[in-house]
Amino acid sequence: MAQDNLSAVLHARGDLHVLIQMHSVGICGSDVHYWQHGQIGDFKVTKPMVLGHEAAGRVVKVGSAVRHLKVGDRVAIEPGVPRDMDEYFKTGQYNLSPTIFFCATPPDDGNLCRFYTHNANFCYKLPDNVTYEEGALIEPLSVGIHACRRAGVTLGSTVLICGSGPIGLVCLLVAKAMGASQVVITDLDPQRLSKAKELGADFELVVKKGDETKKLAERVEDMLGAQPHVAIECSGAESSIQTAIYATRPGGVVVLVGLGAEMVTLPLLNAAVREVDIRGVFRYRNTWPMAIAMLASGQVNVKSLVTHRFPLEQTGQAFETTRQGVGIKVMLKCDQNDQSP
């Protein structure tokens, strides 16, 4: 796209926007799901849509009202931008606004492209010691931050994490950074659990399809010596949610992060009589500054999560790699002149 056309796009978007030359964009499971099925819940793809929402790049033009960014700044992009100053925006819960713009969620295009314009207030300058890829990984890291906040993870917390995919692993990293003393993490795949151990999990529990959920909960208790304060469910599987509820101690919290079937059977009476709170998580809010601080300080290290890299021209191969469940995080490199991390 010619530079004069890019300038016209920026002008049309408004004075508070910046034009970004995209550098690194991670592939999320939701991107693959839209590609394969054209729908997630009530969000249906009805026309061609650009994917991508885990992203970082370099500012190449700024709107006239932008004060905190300049040309050349490297930025991480928060993909959800409120459209209206509604009650959710006013109370800081902007992620729950029904009219929010969100990259790669119908009908909104994502940022898997060469150049992209975004609201400058939702672009965050990266410190010199934080790479573009780390900037892109702030998006999944933010899910972990929001989940741990919702769960109330704090110094000394014991935590069960169900599922050791990319989101389970970032929940592990964040829980440890927030002071969790012991973390048990589960998965069907022993290789994923090996990665979890490398990232700091205290106990790994291999589960099998058909395992009795109460028995699994007992095994978690045996590992920790007591029931965990918190369970963070990242798989969306019905049996895994059941295990999380049974495992959590009375007065504890179960946070549901994974997206599965619309209707599931759960032991709600068990949760109710033990005052186990069940809380949902929808994306994140107010997390980018904390995530950047965690990365810049070295308190959290996400670099090893990136296992595959592809140039933008090989997007199809990159998506197929993600669909097959190979590795952990696949990263697309959008800048033809800079393929560095």
Describe the protein in words.
This protein has helices at about 5-15, 30-35, 85-90, 130-135, 140-150, 165-175, 190-200, 215-225, 240-245, 270-275, 290-295, 315-325, and strands at about 15-25, 40, 45, 55-60, 75, 80, 100, 115-120, 125, 160, 180-185, 205, 230-235, 255, 275-280, 305-310, 330-335. By secondary structure, the chain is α/β, with parallel strands linked by helices. Strand 14, helix 10 (about 270-275) and strand 15 (about 275-280) form a beta-alpha-beta unit. Helix content is about 35%, strand content about 25%. The strands form 4 sheets. Strands 1, 4, 5, 8, 9, 16 and 17 form a 7-stranded mixed sheet that branches. A 6-stranded parallel sheet has the order 12-11-10-13-14-15, with helices on both faces. Helix 5 crosses helix 6 (about 165-175) and helix 5 (about 140-150) packs across helix 11 (about 290-295). It folds into 2 domains: about 10-125 and about 300-335, Quinone Oxidoreductase, Chain A, domain 1 (Alpha-Beta Complex), CATH 3.90.180.10; about 140-280, Rossmann fold (3-Layer(aba) Sandwich), CATH 3.40.50. The two termini are about 25 Å apart. The model has no long low-confidence stretch (mean pLDDT about 95).
